[in-house]
Prior knowledge:
Strand order of the largest sheet: 4-3-2-1-5-6-7-8
Shape: globular
Number of domains: 2
Number of helices: 14
Number of strands: 14
CATH architecture of the largest domain: 3-Layer(aba) Sandwich
Helix content: 25-40%
Low-confidence stretches: 48-54
CATH topology of the largest domain: Rossmann fold
Structural class: alpha/beta
CATH class of the largest domain: Alpha Beta
Radius of gyration: 21 Å
Mean pLDDT: 90
Amino acid sequence: xxxxxxxxxxxxxxxxxxxxxxxxxxxxxxxxxxxxxxxxxxxxxxxxxxxxxxxxxxxxxxxxxxxxxxxxxxxxxxxxxxxxxxxxxxxxxxxxxxxxxxxxxxxxxxxxxxxxxxxxxxxxxxxxxxxxxxxxxxxxxxxxxxxxxxxxxxxxxxxxxxxxxxxxxxxxxxxxxxxxxxxxxxxxxxxxxxxxxxxxxxxxxxxxxxxxxxxxxxxxxxxxxxxxxxxxxxxxxxxxxxxxxxxxxxxxxxxxxxxxxxxxxxxxxxxxxxxxxxxxxxxxxxxxxxxxxxxxxxxxxxxxxxxxxxxxxxxxxxxxxxxxxxxxxxxxxxxxxxxxxxxxxxxxxxxxxxxxxxxxxxxxxxxxxxxxxxxxxxxxxxxxxxxxxxxx
Length: 392
């Protein structure tokens, strides 16, 4: 099997922790374990330092300005001189993890340098996803949604292959006439996320009693994630289940919005917003919980659902898009009608009453997405593009 020098281009990178960054770093580690070399080209906060000043020799960060709706992200300024660096690294192919400024610069570098180009579709694009940006201007929101899809088609049609992480996402791309697709799910490190991880010490640190049950949400705290469904489910369960604590982990533009909502619903005493979760304690946070709840209708796959299952925790999720493919009723979790707080509450209670019955199948599901298995599929994509001319 050939070894490749691969350039990942991304508009998001550490210290931001999201699905793109998690997927990228997980694959990087496994690809390099197999003898490949992965270089990351990404944006960074601040414009006052040299673009290539970084702690690692294989990470190239380009100065950027803050993206106000999501302060943990930045928009790179003039990252287009990366082509010189690519040539010095003897790159074999470019993999654009995002389609925006850094992704576009990767596309230009691929065209100018005649490198094969792979693109990943990680982030759902729709008018609903723009609610956080233009909540009161529907015309502008609809215009931006239409424009984004036009740009999305422009970008991904210029890739040799567009990677979709789920069947639902691949179907969506094909409906928008992006047909150069390959199904390669995001992966997880099952050596790190496994049923042996302990979480009791973290429960104690969070002030959660030993007899309390913990329902966890983990991810970006933004309107499209539909966290209001979980909060209303918490209200519905308040009278019958005083032993449940809801933990919301993550940051985002709607954090204050949801705190106010929890107060207004009268559940703030049962809901704990823990903010940014350090990467080192992620496995322990899953272990400290009894189940993961994902009310989002925005997921292209949902890496956190697989991480939770790998630790042996069932998942309660909206019956929508990619989550429908992962969560199986009565086996590794339960699905509820998207947007239905009462349905969510019923499924949470059902799972809490039978947690152990879901554990074995949850771990088995996660194992199918282990990075060692999924990396085989990614390398087959790289093999396919390395043997043909780039598409432009």
